[in-house]
Design brief:
alpha+beta
Length: about 70
């Protein structure tokens, strides 16, 4: 479900979590849950949805985000 792609960055491997990722901020030390959306042929926009103290809290927030979007 969660795979570390590069240091301090995890992405989800399940289709329902498409576009969601978690990044450990070097500045704040928090885990930022972000959503990446395509805005053009080769352009992407990344929006931070929330920040969390632990990776587990960020994963839980991602699961909640999927439930909100699927309703």
């Amino acid at each position: 479900m969660l795979q570390q792609s590069i240091p301090r960055h995890w992405h989800f491997t399940t289709p329902e979590h498409d576009g969601l990722s978690i990044r450990l901020s070097r500045i704040t030390g928090e885990f930022d849950l972000s959503l990446r959306t395509q805005v053009g042929d080769m352009c992407w926009e990344t929006t931070i949805l929330s920040s969390h103290q632990t990776l587990e809290q960020a994963v839980t927030a991602a699961d909640r985000q999927v439930l909100v979007v699927s309703r």
